Amino acid sequence: QAVPVDQAGLMRENYTPGDIGFDPLGLKPEDPEELAIMQTKELQNGRLAMLAAAGFIAQELVDGKGIIEHFTA
After folding, report:
1. Which residues have CB under 8 Å from 67's CB, separation 6+?
2. Which tens digits make up the pLDDT trace of 5-18?
């Protein structure tokens, strides 16, 4: 069922942000509670990755060496 064109921003009742229906391996849990737990874990994982990337950038700004240069030195 399509969203009416004259009501911009209106969302469907069953809309979940980021869920485009692509799950070829069937990894999405059927239980709503388990899905909420998985979404929370994924958000926390993404936040940790952003902190790690910020650390790499800060290190490069401090000493002028890239990430690879630190491994070879």
Report:
1. 56, 59, 60
2. 787 777 777 777 77
- 70's CB contacts (< 8 A; 6+ apart) are 59
Helices (H), 1-73: 32-63, 67-72
Q: Beta-carbon neighbour count of residue 60 at 10 Å?
A: 14
Question: Which pair of tokens denotes residue 52?
Answer: 């790690």
Beta-carbon count within 10 A of 38 CB: 14
Measured CA to CA, the distance from residue 64 to residue 54 in angstroms comes to: 15
Rounded Cα–Cα distance for residues 11 and 2 (Å): 10
pTM higher than the cut 0.70: no
